[in-house]
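#structure-requests
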Amino acid sequence: MSIFKEIPPTAGFPLRLKDILSVFKAGAGKNCLAYDFQNYLNVSYARVTYSGTAALYLILESIKELSSKKTVVIPSYICPLVPLAVKRAGFKVEVCDIYKDDFSFNHASLQQLCSKNNDIAAIIVVHLAGIPIDFDAVEGIAKKHGIFIIEDCAQALGAEYNGKKVGTLGDFAFFSLCRGKGLTIYEGGAIVTDNQEYARVIEARARKTIKSAIFSEGLKILELLGYSLIYRPQFFWFAYQLPQIFWRVSGKELKARLEDFTEDFPTHKVSFIRQKIGHAAFSRLDEEINKQRNKTNYYMNRLKDMGGIRIICEPRDSRATYPYVTLLFTDQEKRDMILEAFEGTGLGVSQIYAFPVTEYPYLKGIVPAKECPNAKYLAKRSLTLSTSTFLREEDMHRICEDIINLTL
């Protein structure tokens, strides 16, 4: 184990000195980062929020003024923060299982669920791993039953579906600007919609809900500056692996995996300082995505003929961002063996969510008990390969060679 080389497991953008120094330059307006989202996605409205979770919460609070229905449908394999936001906004959670070998809703199950339940206000579609889902099928179901669609684009800023950017397909969308999720302001998010009525409702709700928090925001500015120094292989072990070791020794595995959350998440305003730093980095978005896609292509070319492994990849006519690459093994024991073999190597081989969303202990009473065999299958047989900008070709060569040799 080398504590001085730790590749991040996802492709978060490193911040450059000129991004930080942009704070002292004139020119960018108060809402510069929101305007970046509007211009990049070609939508009429965007708002920067404290986090992607806070963005979802604000969308749901707004939907309460647009619909009297009280249920929100989520996929079975998703970040646990999503149902916590749904619960905090006062909605009931309904879970629909995904397909066995990708992240999309099982369309037959979704159709059946929406036909039986006339209390569904919204469906949250998740472009997990930066891979656009089959949106047309979900849209057809939602329109048939008068249901809003919220796109979870937390990992997918810049992805495209049938020539359109994700985030512009549904009624509402939210993005994450959290560390490790691509473009970052350490902790942040954004809401977008191209519907003027929805935008008006969101703005009115935001004025009531989102307040300033000087101390908390000051801390986030300091953490962002710390991120700009520490988010590199030489120091990342101390910020990532060391806390994991501590929590595992303490018997708190979900904390070690960064999957232990509560519904008491902050929603306060994001300062102009952090927005301006994000604005300065925004111009590198497409460049960084291209790097991620190049690394993904390397993995695909090396592993495509391996028996017992499937790479979850973009559908036809789509363009994924791939902040990481997901491998799906037919044999769980081999997946476990490979994860164990890479532990401590610092090569960014990891796993996303440990369980289907129905199986997190702290979500009991929020997420209904339900068997989701496809999500369980994926959770037990998947691992992820980093596409971090810090990953070198010799690192990827070693990763692929080790996977090939361990799988044979």
